[in-house]
Amino acid sequence: MNSEKVVDAKGLACPMPIVKTKKAMDELESGQILEIHTTDKGSKNDLTAWAKSGGHELLKTEEDNVFKFWIKKG
């Protein structure tokens, strides 16, 4: 999946993945896609809830050694 920007939040604990995601999302236009990479297990629930509360759309998640999220800006 193509994304306009990638956030590397690997090795960071809550709330830093959300903080970095919000900052990056503020730089995007509506409809653009942000890709986030994190190793924090809690980020799965955190980013899902954050996207919904912010009016964004969580398009896809992948789980390997790294959690990857694709969020479309609302």
From TrEMBL:
CDD domains, per database record: SirA_YedF_YeeD
Domain UPF0033: 7-31
Pfam families per UniProt: TusA
PANTHER family: SULFUR CARRIER PROTEIN YEDF-RELATED
UniProt record similarity statement: Belongs to the sulfur carrier protein TusA family.
Protein name: UPF0033 domain-containing protein
Taxonomic source organism: Neobacillus mesonae
